[in-house]
Design a protein that fits this description.
Elements: H1 7-13, H2 26-31, E1 34-39, E2 42-48, H3 62-78, E3 84-95, E4 104-114, E5 118-127, E6 132-146
Antiparallel strand pairs: 1-2, 2-4, 3-6, 4-5, 5-6
């Protein structure tokens, strides 16, 4: 796709290196990742695990991990420059290692297959040492809601 005709891709590229405190997603504002890489069908972001994302053991909470994956994947679908809103219809998550309070992690969201009505995606949360903290596969379906931007 000609990226000069993809204003949503340009929008996300302008956010590289900035935190997401001004995200259009209220959950995204709370997660507050920092975008590192933006391509059509791919977003990569960094995050330091905060106390409000941990369980009583001081580990990244599974719900927070799911939220990170789901929110970044949802944002990534915008890079496909679709006119309709897409929403998650399922998500399968595997938790493979622990991330602790103050650990730096990288979240990757990638479109595996972008069909007309369903976009199949994969996401990963990685530790600095390369261990996979969590990985997911998910499908997003096109809604009847036209995007206002």
């Amino acid at each position: 796709m000609d990226t000069t005709k993809n204003p949503r891709l340009d929008f996300f590229r302008a956010l590289i290196g900035r935190d997401m405190r001004s995200s259009i997603s209220p959950l995204g504002r709370w997660l507050n990742v920092t975008l590192r890489q933006v391509d059509e069908g791919l977003l990569v972001a960094d995050l330091i695990v905060r106390e409000d994302m941990t369980n009583p053991a001081g580990l990244l909470h599974g719900g927070a991990a799911c939220a990170l994956l789901d929110d970044l994947i949802g944002a990534m679908v915008f890079t496909l420059n679709r006119e309709q809103l897409y929403v998650s219809v399922n998500m399968n998550v595997d938790f493979l290692h622990a991330a602790r309070l103050n650990d730096a992690v990288t979240i990757t969201a990638e479109a595996v297959r972008a069909g007309r009505n369903i976009v199949h995606c994969e996401g990963r949360i990685m530790a600095e040492d390369g261990k996979i903290i969590a990985k997911c596969s998910t499908n997003l379906v096109q809604t009847n809601t036209k995007l206002p931007f």
